[in-house]
Amino acid sequence: SKLSSSSAASDVYKRQDGLNQIALDYANTEEGKQAQELVNSLQTLGDSSFKSNDISKNFKVVIDCVNSTGGISLPPLLARLGVAQVKELYCEANGLFPHNPEPLAENLTELCAELASGSYDLGITVDPDVDRLAFVSENGEMFGEEYTLVAVADFMLGIKEGNTVSNLSSSRALRDVTRAKGCLLYTSPSPRDKRQ
Fold first, then answer.
1. How many C-beta atoms surround the C-beta of residue 125 within 10 A?
2. How far apart are the first and last CA of the chain?
3. Cα–Cα distance for residue pair 99/50, rounded to 1 Å
4. What does DSSP assign to residue 96?
């Protein structure tokens, strides 16, 4: 039998409370403290970067958050950037994936079709734990997560030089971009790398 909407909402809130406790527990670890330092440094950058401008107000974006926590973070981020028109696909953070959650073209046919229609400027998708991000161009073609990481690193290293860190499944391109700026790339296995 189906749950009533109030029961389903209660389950979602219980799940959210559990996630909040995990986040609080994690915040007291060394990794959590390092993550908070990174968030603080990005916030400093964000204070100067997150200004609405005429370009972002005219941007039309479609996002597919695969019903993950990306649905909690990506819409407010785009709003803060001043993006006025955002079409949300699968942005309920309920963990019920509407399609294979890997951010690959074959799993993102709906998002790619929205962009190919010519009505939007950019598509954004994330994986379930929002540690990977991929873009879809205005013509519906993927700009995959590997290219996204390299492009963002190249941009950020142009603003402030520093070392980069990635998991073991990143391509050599990140290393090349990092070395070209006179910096070092550090790699570390992720749980995903250990499963492969």
1. 28
2. 38
3. 32
4. -
Average pLDDT over residues 5-23: 44
The C-alpha angle with vertex 39 and arms to 34 and 42, in degrees rounded to 5, equals 125
Residue among 142, 137, 83 at smallest CA distance from 115: 137
Q: Rounded distance, CA 183 to CA 185, Å?
A: 7
Identify which of 132, 129, 135, 126 has the alpha carbon closest to the alpha carbon of residue 167.
Answer: 132
Residue 125, beta-bridge partner list: 64, 134
Range 144-148, long-range pairs (CB < 8 A, 24+ positions): 144/103, 144/104, 144/105, 145/103, 146/170, 146/171, 146/173, 147/173
Distance from C-alpha of 118 to C-alpha of 95, rounded to nearest angstrom:
30
Maximum Cα–Cα distance across the chain:
61
Contact (CB, 8 A) for 134 and 103: yes
With 0-12 / 13-18 / 19 or more C-beta atoms within 10 angstroms meaning exposed / middle / buried, residue 118 is exposed
Going from the C-alpha of 71 to that of each of 46, 66, 106, 169, the distances in angstroms are 20, 8, 21, 25
Instruction: Output the pTM of the full model.
Output: 0.68
The answer to whether 63 and 85 are in contact (CB under 8 A) is no
Distances (CA, A) of 151 to 28, 110, 116, 133, 137: 32, 25, 23, 12, 14
Instruction: Write the pLDDT tens digit of every residue in 122-145.
Output: 999 999 988 888 999 999 999 988
